[in-house]
Design goal:
This protein is mostly helical. 78% of the residues lie in helices and 0% in strands.
Length: 50
């Protein structure tokens, strides 16, 4: 489960950097980065349940 959280946070970082450099066209990568962080925080209780 920790791997899932790590992958979500890495994806958020990559999307945030891509958004900062203006990559993405019509898709707002900043919102996708925020969604990845929210998903990572949302899965934290599952990590501590085991």
């Amino acid at each position: 489960m920790a791997v899932v959280i790590l992958l979500l946070l890495v994806a958020a970082a990559v999307l945030a950097v891509a958004h900062a450099f203006g990559v993405g066209g019509r898709v707002n990568l900043g919102w996708l980065a925020i969604a990845c962080v929210i998903a990572a925080v949302w899965t934290l209780p599952a990590l501590t349940a085991f």
